[in-house]
Write a structure and sequence with these properties.
Elements: H1 6-137
């Protein structure tokens, strides 16, 4: 049969001392390490969330900046194209004016040359008519 004597008290004291010693030596350091690890993981997760929100904000800013740059570039391109078109029209107009002036000058020169040739032919017309009539009739006047 089991007798309850002083050895039971010693065993209870030994058990309580063992629990206290294990708690001090083993369980508290492990719990502290687990608490520190949990705090570190929580801090890292918060940093990840902050970084993700920063990345999203920067990505949105980059995208909007890129869109603005494209719109600005297209505006400048359109302005340059309009300027180039205007310059092209001016150059073509100048070329046409010069061509018209040259054409008028050439026509005037051709008209003068035709008039001078006509005048010289008019002078020679009588001589040629007489020569032709001599040849056709075969006699001289």
């Amino acid at each position: 049969m089991i007798s309850l004597d002083y050895s039971l008290g010693i065993q209870i004291i030994n058990f309580l001392f063992l629990i206290w010693a294990l708690n001090v030596v083993l369980y508290k350091p492990i719990r502290n390490i687990l608490i520190q690890r949990k705090e570190k993981i929580t801090g890292l997760e918060q940093n990840i969330d902050i970084c993700n929100s920063d990345i999203k904000g920067k990505d949105d800013a980059f995208t909007s900046g890129l869109k603005e740059a494209r719109v600005k570039g297209m505006g400048e391109k359109d302005a340059l194209m309009q300027t180039a078109t205007d310059e092209e029209k001016m150059i073509i107009e100048k070329i046409n004016q010069k061509a018209q002036a040259d054409l008028a000058e050439v026509r005037e020169k051709v008209a003068k040359d035709a008039e001078s040739v006509r005048a010289s032919l008019q002078e020679e017309l009588d001589d040629i008519a007489i020569a032709i009539s001599h040849k056709i009739l075969g006699r001289a006047f």
